[in-house]
Amino acid sequence: MYRKILITTDGSAVSSMTACAGVKFAQQMGAEVLALFVAPEYQYPIYVEIIPPSYPSEEEYRAAMLRAGREHVQPILDSCEKKGLQCHGITAFAESAAQKIVDVANEHGCDLIFIGSHGRSGWGQLLLGSVTNKVLSHSKIPVLVHRLLKEPLPD
């Protein structure tokens, strides 16, 4: 049914559990997986006239975010490899994570976006996370929202 599934991660325990569910779903479908981490664009400090020496340069920031992206995507790649699924990982930079998720899915020919909802308690369970909500409203391809039934244990 689905040939290529985009699975998003932000490196949190909640998104890691969602990614595990996404890989299992991809295995059931026999689909290829594209794992995506979206990092925020570099922000110059606008509150000072001179950039402080301790503030990372744009190159240092991008290198750190690429390392973080590889670390967050690697468990998905490893899980796919164990299950015999073809998988690629991407770290992308964007002001809007939601729009970047939709754009990457379209650019890479994905036919499903697998994304998590927020696992909050109380009234929060009725609301989707802002990124998930924006992906739902902007995507022209199907979006499967995975909801955790219980919160992951703290790291």
Automatic annotation (TrEMBL):
Q: Sorted alphabetically, which Pfam families does this protein's record hold?
A: Usp (PF00582)
What Gene3D superfamilies does this protein's entry cite? HUPs (3.40.50.620)
CDD domains, per this entry?
A: USP-like (cd00293)
Please report the stretch or stretches of sequence annotated as the UspA domain: 1-145
What InterPro entries does its record include? Rossmann-like_a/b/a_fold (IPR014729), Universal_stress_UspA (IPR006015), UspA (IPR006016)
Against PANTHER family, the record matches this protein to:
STRESS RESPONSE PROTEIN NHAX (PTHR46268), UNIVERSAL STRESS PROTEIN UP12 (PTHR46268:SF6)
Similarity section: Belongs to the universal stress protein A family.
Name of the molecule in the record: Universal stress protein
Name the source organism. Answer: Pseudoduganella ginsengisoli
